[in-house]
Amino acid sequence: MSQETTQVGDNVASAYEELKEIGAAPLWRFYGNLFRKEPLSQAVPYHWSYERFRRSIEFFTGVMSLEEAERRVLMMVNPGLQDPPATLTTLFAGLQTIMPGETARPHRHTSNAFRFIIDGTGATTTVNGEVVEMRPGDLLLTPGWHWHDHVHAGDGPMYWLDGLDYPLVNLLEGSFAENLDAPRQEQTVPTGLSSRMFTHGRLNPAFLTPAGQSSPIGNYSWEQTQATFDAIGDDLEGSRSDGIILDYVNPWTGGPVMPTIGCRIARLRDGFVGQARRTSSNMIFHVVEGSGTTQVGDHSFTWQRGDTIAVPLWTWYRHMVAAGSHATLFSYTDEPVRRSLGFFREETREG
Ligand code: 1HN
User: What residue stretches are annotated with the Cupin type-2 domain (predicted)?
Assistant: First the structure.
């Protein structure tokens, strides 16, 4: 190499160094990462066992008060997203328990949240002054900036799945949060009123004005979910990937229940073998009834009641239900965000 070429090389190297000093970077060295051909999540496919989580959370129930914990929640942490811990890049799942006589004190945050009840009865959640009952299979909403506390006046432990969008809110650096300086909220709305007023979403109370972008319904009850599946019956094939899949809707808009989280519930018949599907959205599945196997990317997860499965965006998934009984899968997704921003995509594959 001539002395001249070496000199040019040194000049170029120092010019790159100087770019850092002036707060600049050469786009040509970053193109590939900034404009990927397809999405690739940092999260990996994963499966959390309810049985295993229950054993651990029962231990902590014995050694730690709810005053200490604020919320007794075991987070479902994706091995690809440990710091800060999250279930998928935009979504969180956790298992929460509350014991008879306990109160999880009121707070509110910008994150949207829901609870899907797994086991137990007798606890209530108060959301902006409305007392909402909790029964297995119910979906309860606590949209962003709504006060919420949990009280258990019944017998036996309660367990539920918590779903939140805090990973997305924190990516957007949008977190506000505060505690109410009281052990619980005062009830200002009759118990379960919102669910009664919007019973089936086809006759909305026109004397009310929609507030915010979320559904006004506090509890989408399992009783109504089951009645809907029964009304549809067993004769339809439904979606080839997801069977008889239903959207929980915001009755004001017909759209998703919250701006950042869409919730669905699907009944898959005995022996169902789904068509592989992938979407540009993150998805979390929770087993309400039945058992089976779901292939997610290169993984194969065998699941039973109460288990939770994370499907990172743009990863193929395929459900298979064990012979002997149908399965019911609750799921939630950040699809509303991607649709509203114009980059939702989906594909299915034969075989
Ligand atoms: C939260 O506020 C609750 O209010 C549950 O029950 C789980 C996980 C992360 C952040 C806040 C609740 C949560 C949470």
Answer: 95-162
